[in-house]
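Check my protein:
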Amino acid sequence: MSRQIAAYLRAHPDATDTVEGILDWWLPVQRYEDAKTDVQQALRDLVQQGLIEEVAHYSGNRLYRLASPREKSN
């Protein structure tokens, strides 16, 4: 918990709040940021392993899906 609060404060150095505010606002935001970083790393690893593929969407977003089976050449 201390690491999450400290990480939030490093990212938002002007933040000030009550215990209730920290519980309601800071920790959910920090957990989201931590989870987002973890998910991004996991996706990079899975793409690198060839288990999933990343495709570009017309919106500019990246989408992830199970990798298509590659055709075997004889």
